[in-house]
Amino acid sequence: MTTHRIRVGIDVGGTFTDAVAVDATTLSLLGQVKVPTSHHHEDGVAHGIVEALDRLLQQVGRDPADVAFLAHGTTQATNALLEGDVATVGLIGIGTGPGAVLTRRLAALGRLELAPGKRLPLAYAHVADPDDASAVRAAVGQVTAAGAEVLVATEPFAVDRPEGERSVLEAARPAGLPMTAAHEITSLYGLHKRTRTAVVNAAILPRMLATADLVDASITKAGITAPLMVMRCDGGVMALDEMRRRPLLTVLSGPAAGVAGALMQERISEGVFLETGGTSTDISVVRRGKVAVRHATMLGRSSYLNALDVRTVGVGGGSMVRVDLTRGDQAHDSQGRGGQARVTAVGPRSAHIAGLPYACFADPDELRDAALATVRPMPDDPADYAVLDAAGGRYAITMTCAANALGRVPEGDFARCDQQVAKAAIAPLAAALGVDVPTAAARILDAGAEQVKSVVDKIVRDYRLDADTAVLVGGGGGAATVTPHLAVLTGMEGRIARHNEVISPIGVALALVREQIERIIPGATQEQILAVRAEAEQAVVAQGAAADGVEVEVTVDPQTSTVRAIATGATELRTQDRSHSADDSERLAAAAASLKTDPDRVRVLAGTPAHTVYGTEVRRRLRAPRHPVRVVDADGVVRLHASDAQVAATTVGAAPELLSNLVREATSYGDGGVRAPALRLLLGSRIADLSGVLEPQPLLALARSEMRDRAADEPVVAVVEVRS
Questions:
Q1: Alpha-carbon distance 315 to 327, whole Å?
Q2: % of the chain exceeding 90 in pLDDT
Q3: Cα gap 367→689, rounded to integer Å
Q4: 293 pLDDT exceeds 90?
Q5: What is the DSSP letter of 365?
Q6: Which residues, other chains included, contact 319 with Cβ-Cβ below 8 Å and sequence gap of 6+?
Q7: DSSP-assigned letters across all residues of 86-147
Q8: How large is the average pLDDT for residues 143-171?
Q9: pLDDT (0 to 100) of residue 330
Q10: Cα(first)–Cα(last) distance of the chain, in Å?
């Protein structure tokens, strides 16, 4: 029997470090371990990472040489900013005349508040001429005397003319401090925002460098030869050397690991991912097979950090129930018994923070003589949190108790308990409400899920998710307490991710190398757009991605003149085991279900070895018929959906002429200018998304670049949507 190599993902949390081993070919979970996060060890969190790795390899019976991919995600950068545990930054501004006025104002960045009572430690010095080495050395001496541990150089318009910032860093090199130039962190205009992003990056740089060195040395000592990757906040991973340059990319990477796991393991193409822990639920979006990313807000200010768009709600599996025992809606149960109490809310206080055990995990004898009471878990909390005072002590009534009482937690789930014990835990509250146990449990879940629903409803509207195909997928140890009930409330399809309790380390193990390049280019030409694309592609290849498998998505925003290229790729060419691929009938059924029509009304429009394109016709009164399309992969997963599209099958050799005609016919002209159609190409194992380009000629140039170096007889399918 062939033993496949493994991919290892390690997620460093605030309390525990989780590690998983995934088969590199089948992508199935082979093993998982949990160790305490080693914050206080002399090697810091690096010690816990190595300990988790050692235990994991022992558990799955593999050697270090079997590891094909190793990545870790960490909250260290996020925690450093939240706790104000950062290095003093020496900021050297450059400029004369009006430029000097602008850069001197940047000294005010020292007023940024990291944590209550803690401001960003910053020392500022100014140089007029960046080529004056003696002036630069004097400025470096000034900031180091003020305690600077890391240097940042910044100059107006350095995005276009970076020579000044580079000269300052070169002259400052003898000081021996870590250093960075603002233009290296982002190439977008806006001196203040660009410098603020660079300064925050620098503030965590020394600490992250030390951890990186320890982890790198420990992994090498352990005999791992696979390159060590680090989770980014946009759902991808980066090489360790890239993390050393831009540690800021690891901030807010915690939620990104979970949605990366859902995207890769659950194969979501459109939907909402909810990662539910004990205290909160992180809500993020997958739209058309991609995670939703936006510029993050840090320290109360917008930044140029591209991070997962995640919305957090203070509802989790351990969220405690809040009740009003003095008045209510006079609810009656089936026997006509009245109740004076009512459930008013769930959370934000959790049983974990309150230091109370969940009532549903108690032994039956411990719940004897249970009496309902209300408490103030923390000094500043309201005194309306429900608890049980029973023979075994005091217990919290939680969302997990309610979900188990209703049988919503599946067999084998992390949060599963004896349903009869859960019902006993809810019974005293049900009596106070004057209802039966299932009704009381449903009211608890209603109170919690409604808070999540308001955010989900907004995020669905914000991203205009396709209601026909969007799904709710729950991850995290508390997934069963929120997602199933939320599916009932919203009417959306909902499911709990496989191995939901370790979805984050799975996401780390399966994540792709990712890089995003942004440039402000007014009136960008085809050559300039292709150059940005090539830069992004080269960046992920330089970090270890296999060149043959790199995908690049390009967006050109005519309003802001921003050209953005996002490249992703695996560190090895994946040859996933297809022994369990879906057959024709299963793929047809998946397409019909997504199209919400009978399979008899669905037909195959085109296909490649990796994808099949299905379509149907929707007739509309007094309007032209609509032709919705679904692209289904070999596993039977809907990977692309279009509400009204034209599909054309051709070969690589014949594609340029065909695409030229299709684009010309589907391009619209109006007061808003020229709008080329949204074009996607099915090519090999990939779906090349070119929908971010609105101009016909750059669109066609990108299409040609996607097909370069491919055989002329290779099949290619175009999916074309006319923009309104």
A1: 24
A2: 55
A3: 57
A4: no
A5: G
A6: 279, 346, 347, 348, 349, 350, 351, 398, 399, 448
A7: -PPEEEEEE-STHHHHHHHGGGGGGG-EEETTEE--EEEEEES-TT-HHHHHHHHHHHHHTT
A8: 94
A9: 42
A10: 55
pLDDT at 145 over 60: yes
Which tokens belong to 649?
A: 């099958």
Comparing C-alpha atoms, which of 208, 270, 214 is closest to residue 238?
A: 208
Dist. CA 36–CA 52, nearest whole Å: 9
Q: What is the mean pLDDT of residues 254-267?
A: 83
What whole-number distance in Å separates Cα of residue 334 and Cα of residue 344? 22
- pLDDT band per the 50, 70, 90 thresholds, residue 420: very high
Q: What is the pLDDT of residue 336?
A: 41
Cα–Cα distance for residue pair 432/370, rounded to 1 Å: 13
The predicted structure's pLDDT at residue 580:
55
Q: Is the dihedral of CA 303, 307, 311, 313 positive or negative?
A: negative
Determine the residue type at 130. P
Burial class (CB in 10 A: 0-12, 13-18, 19+), 302: middle
* Residues 537-569 pLDDT 10s: 999 999 988 888 888 999 998 888 899 999 998
The first and second tokens of residue 49, run together, are 């990472």
Judge whether 343 and 323 are in contact, CB under 8 Å. yes
Q: Which residue has the tokens 């792709």?
A: 512
Separation between Cα atoms, residue 274 and residue 444, nearest integer Å: 19
CB atoms within 10 A of CB 606: 21
CA distance 175 to 163: 20
- Average pLDDT of the chain? 88
Tokens of 528: 């300039």
- Read off the tokens for 696: 């016909």
* CA–CA distances in Å: residue 559 to residues 302, 459, 672, 693: 19, 24, 11, 13
